[in-house]
Each structure stands twice: as C-alpha cells, then as structure tokens.
Specification:
385 residues, alpha/beta, Alpha-Beta Plaits, GMP Synthetase, Chain A, domain 3, Rossmann fold, 3 domains, seven-stranded mixed beta sheet, 21% helix, 29% strand, binds S-adenosylmethionine
Length: 385
C-alpha cells in the first residue's frame, strides 16, 4: 500500500538557520514514496544525509516522537512526529504515514518479569551461543526452574531465533551437546539449522554432531595457511580432517584455487550426511577411528586438522601416516592444557622425536576454567620416508 503524503508547504524556520547548514533551503527534493504496511503515524521523510539535522530540529521544536525509531527508506529516512506536531506543520519535505517503529528493550533480560529479574539479579547468563536459528544457553541451578520464561524472553528479543535450548554440556566420544529445548517458535522443534561462518554456509544438527561457533575466528585463519602452503609447495594441496564433525575446518580451509583433494572422517556416524552436504563433491568421507584410518590410507595429505582438544596431543604420533613425505607438511590443531605452553612444546616434540619439526607455533586462545586453557598449535614438519 502506498503511503499518504500530507500537503507540503514551504518550511518556515522558527529561528534563523544559516543557509550553509540549513537543508530546508536546499533544492526541493521530493522523495518517491516507499511502499509500506498500514499507515499509522506521521513521519517526516528527509534525505539520509540530513537525518541528524532534522532529528535535532524536530526535537528542538518538541515535535520528535522520541520513543519510536527512524525508518530506513533507502535514500531517505522517516523521522517519527509526535502528537504535538500540528497537522499543518510542513517543510519542503513530505510527511508520510508509516507504521511506528517501537523500540523495545535493549537487552533480553529486560524482557523478564521485573520481580523475577531482581530476585536472581546476579544469576542471569551474560552470554550464550547462537548456532543458526538456535540459541544454546547454560543455566545455573538457581534459575534452571525459570527455563521456560528465559526461553520466551529470548524468542521475543531475537526474531530470527526459532529454538532456545538449555546446554547441558558436551558428552561422550562424539562430544555431542546434550540440548534440552526450553522454547520454540511455531512449534518447530527441528535441530537442523544452517550456520554462516566467515562467509561460508554449513548445515548441521548440534544435538547429533559436535559443532561450536566459538572457534570460528580461529578457523578464519585456515584459508590463509592453505594458500601459503600451496604457494610454497607450488601446487594445489590435499587437506584432511580426521576428526571432522560437520566439517567446519575443511569448509573454512577449502579454496578451489589451492585445494584439489579433501578427506573428512569422523567416528560419529551422524556426521557423514552433514559432511556430504557441506563439503565439495570430490571429497572422500569416512566414518571410523582416525588412528585406524591412518593405517589403511592410499593417499597422503599436505595439511591435517586435529580438533580433539582433550586428546589432540596424544593422538599426534599415530597421525603421521596421513602426511606426505619429503616435503613440508602441516598439522594444525587445538588442545586443552593445564600445564601451559612449555609443556605442550615438550609433548609435541616427544611425539615427533624421529621427525624434523621445521617450526612450531603455539598460542593460548582462551582460558576454559581457572586451571585450563585452550591452545592452538601449528606444526610444520618434514617427514622422511
Ligand atoms: C571436538 S569435535 C571437533 C569436530 C570438528 N573438527 C570441529 O572443529 O567442529 C571432535 C570430533 O572428533 C570425533 N572423534 C572423537 N574421537 C574420534 C576418533 N578416535 N576418530 C575419529 N573421530 C573421532 C567426534 O565424534 C567429534 O565429532
């Protein structure tokens, strides 16, 4: 439905405004009217660049509706006018009727009943993970019985969220997240969702295969490492993730300019369909123990990714068969440690005592608990046959 424009008459400034900063005296511009829903409230439609000026001017006149937001009308902005603004008020710009943008609370916790909020003031979670359309949130014991209210507040606050789940931790060999649904939109309880990570899309179900958005920034660096190694070796390279989950390392690392072989493996059978969906068609996909697969491989790889934080280091020595001989190769991984960088260096060197480590880089990413941190490691190796 087209918006209705009031009659436009010349703007009469109540106070003199210097011509240079008084857009009211600039060339008369009539914006083409945008199409919008039900007409409810008068808005002054001004060129985008003049928004700040007109907002201030309307505020000074007492005509600005401060509790409502400003409409984005492409090259124009619709500034809400209040009831004090006379019906014959006009400027060289049009007054159009738009649905008011009612700005809600800034934080989701402001949507909780006030008394409840105050009762547990220090216990409300300050962060949560968003996985596609799903929010995954940890609840302390003191507020666990408010799960439904919390879920509804989050759904109300984040219109793109469809499911809110309590995170009961990562469990078992498959490191799968135990999720308890606490609220859903339109009764859609499916855990299947799509995440966008560093411009790439992946399909997943966080209740059946491990996925965490927390290492997304770390994964961003993988494509650069791949590109650099490919250039150093002067060829397209083969990349491999023996503990692939739904494949975020490989998805981030893959670039058709630099990669021509992919192997993805995960012990969890539920990972296979997601790896098939998320990786290029030429990828080889397996479902077995990474160490067993190492003994049956017919191909070799230039980079392998290892994200099995509790056991990454202890698995390393059994992963050498994945790597190509007589050239530079890389192992890129993440490990948990409570003894720090120096101890990790010693452990990694011990695992490759027979081989030539060209370079080893270890960085602390963040602390996991008071005693433990997660570290990233990049090992440049030269393996002799
Ligand atoms: C922490 S998750 C990492 C998944 C993925 N690389 C990522 O970063 O999202 C570890 C994965 O290793 C798989 N896994 C555990 N032990 C394994 C093993 N011995 N061989 C192959 N995969 C294993 C689990 O099923 C899980 O998907």
């Amino acid at each position: 439905m087209a918006c209705k424009a009031d009659v436009v008459i010349e703007w009469m400034s109540p106070i003199p405004i210097p011509t240079s900063n008084n857009p009211g005296f600039a060339a008369i511009l009539k914006p083409s009217l945008p199409l919008h829903g039900p007409s409810h409230m008068r808005h002054l439609s001004v060129p985008k660049k003049e928004t700040a000026y007109w907002r201030e001017e309307l505020s000074r006149l007492g005509f600005l509706e401060k509790s409502h937001g400003i409409h984005d009308l492409n090259q124009f902005r619709g500034i809400p006018l209040n009831d004090k603004c006379p019906s014959d008020f006009s400027t060289k710009y049009e007054i159009i009727h738009l649905e008011p943008i009612v700005s809600g609370p800034k934080k989701w916790i402001e949507r909780l009943p006030r008394e409840l909020y105050l009762l547990h003031k220090d216990d409300w979670p300050s962060s949560f993970d968003q996985i596609g359309e799903i929010i995954v949130i940890k609840l302390s014991d003191s507020i666990a019985n408010q799960a439904e209210t919390i879920g509804q507040a989050l759904l109300e606050h984040f219109p793109s969220i469809r499911l809110v789940c309590e995170d009961k931790g990562v469990k078992g060999d498959y490191r799968v997240r135990d999720l308890n649904v606490i609220a859903s939109r339109n009764s859609n309880l499916s855990f299947d969702t799509i995440v966008r990570e560093n411009g790439k899309m992946m399909q997943l179900d966080p209740s059946s295969v491990y996925y965490s958005p927390r290492l997304a920034t770390e994964r961003q660096k993988l494509s650069k490492l791949v590109k650099k190694l490919s250039k150093r070796l002067g060829k397209k390279i083969a990349i491999c993730d023996p503990y692939a989950g739904i494949g975020p390392n490989l998805v981030n690392a893959y670039d058709k300019m630099y990669v021509n072989q992919i192997l993805a493996n995960d012990l969890n059978p539920q990972a296979t369909p997601y790896l098939t969906l998320n990786l290029p068609e030429f990828s080889e996909i397996y479902c077995t123990d990474a160490r067993d697969l190492a003994t049956t491989l017919s191909k070799k790889y230039d980079i392998i990714f290892v994200n099995l934080p509790h056991d990454s280091i202890s698995h390393l020595s059994e992963l050498s068969p994945y790597l190509a001989y007589s050239q530079e190769t890389m192992i890129v991984g993440w490990a948990l440690s409570d003894t720090g960088v120096n101890d990790l260096i010693t452990q990694i060197n011990d695992q490759f005592s027979q081989d030539d480590i060209i370079d080893l880089r270890i960085d602390e990413i963040k602390s996991y608990s008071p005693s433990q941190s997660i570290y990233s490691f990049i090992i440049h190796l030269y393996l002799s046959p």
